[in-house]
Every structure is written in C-alpha cells, then in structure tokens.
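Cross-check.
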Amino acid sequence: MPPGAEGRRPRIDRALAALAAPDPARPRGRVAALVDALHVVPDRAAADALIGRMLGAEEMLRIGFLNAHAVNMAWRDPAAAAAFGGLDLILRDGIGMELLLRRQGRDPGLNMNGTDLIPAILAAGRDRPLAIYGTEDPWLSRAAERLSAEGHAIVDTCHGFAGTEEYAARHARHPAGIVLLAMGMPKQERVARALSPAAGRGTESRRGSEPKRAALVLCGGAIVDFLSRRHRRAPAWMRRHKVEWMFRLASEPRRLFGRYIIGNAAFVWRTALLPGRAPSRAAARFLTWAQGGSRPAGGRPAGRP
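Predicted model, tokenized:
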C-alpha cells in the first residue's frame, strides 16, 4: 500500500463513487442522467415501429432530441436539464452524441434528428389534427400552408415568442392530435411539459372515423424554418458523411459560430469525464491503485499510453 494510503481511503472512496455515479445536482451528474435516458434506435425497422407506437400512444407523449448543444445547456443550467428530463422520450441527435456513446462502449444506433424524423411522423399521422407553435411569420404561415397542401388539418398556429401559459391555453382551446413546437431549446421543452395531457383527448379525426388519442408533442427546433424553406438542408452527401453542421455553420456563421465552434469544443471537454469515457475509466483505475497499492492494468500508470 502506498505511504499514507490508509488516511486517504475515505476521500478515494468518495472520488470513486463520484466517478461511478455522479451527483445529479451537479453538471456532470445532470448530463450523465440525460445521456443514460437516451432511447437508442438500432435500425430502420425499429424506427418505423417507434413511429407507430408514438402515434398509437394512449397518453400524451412528449418527444425531444439530445445533441451537443442540448448537453451544453444542461451542463450550464439546471432548469434546462430539468426541461429535457421532463420529456417522455429523448432521442439521439447528431455526430457529437454518436461519438460520446461510442466512447462509452454503447451502440449509438441511428441518428434520429428531428429534421428527418418529424416529417416522417407527420406523414404517418396526416389524419391527426395538427397545431404548430414556433418561429414567426411569414415562415410560420408558409409552413402551415405547405402542410395543409400535403393533407394536414391545421387547427392552430402561433409564433414562438409567447409565454408558456399562452401555449397551454391555446392547446386547451384547440385540441390537436400532434403539436409541433419549434421555438428553440429549452423553451420548447418547457412548453411541452406545460401542455395538459387531457387537452388532446377526444379529438375527432378529420375523417370522423374514431376519436384521436392524447396529443403527440414534438420538440422540433428549426423544423418549421426548414418546412417553410427559410433554411435549406445540406446536400445529401454531406448528410451521409455526418457533416451537415458544417453546411449550417457556413449558411449562418454569425448565429451558429458559438454553437458549433465554441460549443463543440466545450462539449468535448465537458463530457470527457462522464461515466464510461476513457478519462473516467483511467481515473478510476488510478484511484483504485492508490487505494490498494496494486499497479494499474498493463503495468503502466493509469491514463498513460
């Protein structure tokens, strides 16, 4: 045993416990809890089945997406973390989360970003009354017109700058089978939590065939701006190679520089010691050695190549 190890044991035990199960009241613990809550979708068949379960849910289902930007928000702000944690289903969005899960030894599954998934949900649920809350005119009206032309019954629209209570009241007055929120993180997640589960019950389908179940609430970020063609999607080859973020940065450098350049660097640093990451495992090996006196695996000091 290294000299003085006996007196250090309580502190080492606490450090090992913190590495294994970080405090949920602290940034690292908040983020670790959200990453653990991710619903990983392994393949396209599972994605199609998930859409079916979403539309068939008997209770209000709030769907959101966790990406590097959301992780940075949750790290800085406990209220933002609580908003994400209040969702019923959190899906992986983006290359940053894929790399994080791989470094934890987890299968990241499909990239379930809302820009691709939400149009698929809307197409499958075209018979359900739709409310759209987010962005501003003329983009909101253009998106509503496009979706109406595709066969959706639009029961309500509102820009994305009202208070949370206003959206809850509108949803109560205009029950919808699908509520599309497009007002940015974490406001849309807070609004999703505020919507009344009872407000969507009993809504009749446009064809009048059967009562619709409680609303499916989708936190869509910039989806309405994409639907209105305010913003263009990256070319297909960039999406295939997982660099759509570079296209968005080039399209809106002033607005997105902080998110994609500074934010991505912060994401890498902040998540380095999440449970399961290599630095976290190395720290745990070193603390175990310091506690018991055995050399780390491989005969080298922990954390060295």
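Residues 24 and 30 are 5 Å apart (CA to CA). The beta strands are 38-39, 61-66, 89-92, 130-134, 154-158, 178-182, 203-204, 211-212, 216-219. Passed to J.P. for a second look.
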